[in-house]
Amino acid sequence: MEDFQLKESQVSSQQQVPPGHPMARNELLGIWMSYMMDKDSCLYALGGFDSTNYQCTVERLDPRVGKWMSVPPMMSRRSSCGAAILGGMLYCVGGNDGTMCMASAERFNPRRNTWEPITAMHSRRSTHEVVEIDGFLYALGGNDGSSSLNSMERYDAKLNKWVLVTSMLARRSSVGAAVLDCLQLEKGLNKST
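Predicted structure:
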């Protein structure tokens, strides 16, 4: 892979791979990967599909070094999976292994440099979104292999347990999600009225 330097001002927890980077071009060739940045501003590319094979490989870009490095592969091949950071661990949830949509999930411990399984979700999900809110992971929407989903599940890492929570109004696959502090938003809206 090419060397790549990120300027410090380009690094944020919501950043995608910059346009023109080799990893970004691969989506046009049919590779579907999940990207996630950790608290130390390292970017992870998880799994994917290269038009032939479903991947379990994981790569990390440390912008301080400016190079992609391999990290241990995931336990399962996953494309169109959800990813999020919780408690210093990188979680990879659901996805498709080439034969079916998956309910299984795993997490990467960067200190130990190892992956371990976590409890599976209630529903199989691919092309879904995973976000962290207030110390919990939420998996929302996606597709179970036969239809789009409106269901949402919450993961409690302390209990290693998923629970179903309020469903969305509409079924959504290939969904995007973002976290916005609603309390702060409400305060701002009340001040302006």
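Summary: The longest helix spans residues 182-192.
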